[in-house]
Specification:
3 domains, single chain, 10 helices, Rossmann fold, 7-stranded mixed sheet, OB fold (Dihydrolipoamide Acetyltransferase, E2P), 454 residues, 8-stranded mixed sheet
Length: 454
């Protein structure tokens, strides 16, 4: 362990790059020091807060040389919550740094020849605030008022929110109306300190394209009186679906970990993706930024370079939105997902839009792939959009041997993307990577990568 650096030491640090969580990274005698709120090119005086064997964590005490890209954050409260940490830099700089985050991950985890890979500039968003179509926030009492909040970074202290700048205007409006109604209704709100009360979380999803909103209340326990009060939320303009679910585990990381039950209105709401209509249940996954999702899907079409005769396989397909968006450009689409509700929604989505060249399969991916192989089905293009942890090893090994010409990898995690592509490079050439900004003002980087079989 380098004994030259200890907790409470003051050091001068030049910030060289941005880390995957948006923190500035500098080097003190080759030891990486992570500093929240520091920007590339800045020289900062830093106090060491934590010292580990391979890195240290520091906090800024003074900015000696300020970056020309530093701006006043429009919503400082969100910085306290560890969200929207990039709002301290200009948007041009944000999208530049997102490309760098992606390239840094490849430099670290990919052992192929990067000089042969094209890294495109990040495709930025037109709306850098008010873009999220879904929010899930803890509910509390603030005096007599019912409020929602976000946890202060690395603590269990809740910061009450008066505004919801990341959510789209429809979600913002309905959120405020529900909180006003709950305040007047004098209801039982959960208090984690005393482990008393009932209503824990408010989950709202709203699509501006159809003006439909879905509300799900997360409760500690069943309560018929409370159900009567919550049912009335259906009378709020644009609310088409009111639901509840029970989550009685105060330590649970997942907010919805139980069956969702409909209280009033429809069980599903309608959304639009370009000219495709879809319906979605409360637990189904859908991209949070609808407008940028269209940009992302157009990049997938571009990468697949479709001619009309292709058989496309959509893995981790969710409600089938990628495959169905591509369906008109190909001969056949097949989607696989291990969430039964997603697959039901995908089939309904296809039916609503009169798409007849799609099939959706529930279950683990590999058994289905083996069945397809037995029936002689060989996809021309495989699209993968895995969760943050990336693709499973058995699937990577399968694709390594499969006769697939093209893989289009959609990723929300640069590190697992680079690791997975490194695994596949024995059989596939990585042609290019294009970052797309689905979450402005946050360090999240979405991307589309094209791999072609050798």
């Amino acid at each position: 362990m380098n004994a030259n650096l200890n907790v409470n030491d003051l050091i001068l640090l030049s910030i060289k790059r941005i880390g995957i969580n948006g923190e500035g990274i500098g080097y003190y005698k080759r030891l990486a020091v992570f500093v929240e709120g520091a920007l590339v090119g800045e020289e900062v005086e830093v106090k060491i807060k934590e010292r580990k064997e391979r890195y240290a964590i520091g906090e800024i005490t003074k900015i000696k040389t300020k970056s020309p890209h530093r701006v006043d954050p429009p919503h400082p409260v969100l910085l306290d919550c560890g969200g929207c940490t990039l709002q301290i830099m200009s948007y041009e700089e944000q999208i530049r740094q997102k490309k760098n985050i992606l390239m840094e991950a490849f430099n670290h985890y990919y052992h192929g020849d990067l000089s042969k890979v094209k890294f495109y500039d990040t495709i930025g968003a037109k709306d850098i605030w008010g873009y999220r179509n879904k929010t899930q926030l803890p509910v509390r009492h603030d005096g007599d008022k019912v409020v929602v909040g976000m946890y202060q970074h690395n603590t269990n202290r809740l910061i009450h929110l008066d505004e919801y700048p990341i959510e789209n205007p429809l979600v913002q409006k309905v959120m405020q109306e529900i909180l006003d109604y709950l305040t007047k209704s004098n209801i039982d709100i959960y208090n984690p300190r005393f482990r008393q009360g009932n209503l824990r979380y408010l989950v709202i999803r709203g699509f501006e394209e159809t003006e439909e909103v879905q509300v799900t209340f997360v409760l500690m326990k069943e309560d018929q009186r409370l159900f009567k009060i919550l049912k009335e939320v259906i009378k709020i303009e644009n609310v088409k679906s009111v639901n509840y679910t029970i989550n009685s585990d105060p330590k649970s990381i997942e907010i919805i970990n139980n069956k969702v039950i409909n209280l009033a209105g429809q069980t599903k709401i309608k959304g639009k993706l370009g000219d495709l209509e879809f319906i979605i249940s409360p637990t189904a996954f859908f991209q949070l930024n609808t407008k940028q999702t269209l940009v992302l899907y157009d990049e997938i079409i571009k990468a697949a370079n479709l001619k009309g005769f292709e058989k496309v396989l959509d893995l981790y397909c969710g409600i089938g939105s990628i495959g169905l968006y591509l369906a008109r450009h190909v001969e056949e689409v097949r989607g696989i997902d291990n969430n039964r509700e997603n697959i039901e929604d995908a089939k309904e989505f296809a039916l609503m839009n009169g798409i007849q060249n799609s099939k959706f399969y529930f279950g683990e991916i590999l058994p289905h792939l083996h069945n397809f192989q037995k029936e002689g089905y060989v996809p021309d293009v495989v699209i993968v959009d895995p969760p943050r942890r990336g693709m499973e090893l058995n699937l990577l090994n399968y694709l390594q041997k499969a006769k697939v010409r093209k893989i289009v990898y959609v990723s929300c995690n640069p590190s697992t993307l680079a690791k997975n592509i490194d695994h596949l490079q024995r059989s596939y050439d990585l042609k290019y990577v294009v970052p797309i900004d689905l979450f402005p003002n946050t360090p999240h980087v979405e991307s589309v990568s094209l791999l072609e079989r050798r």
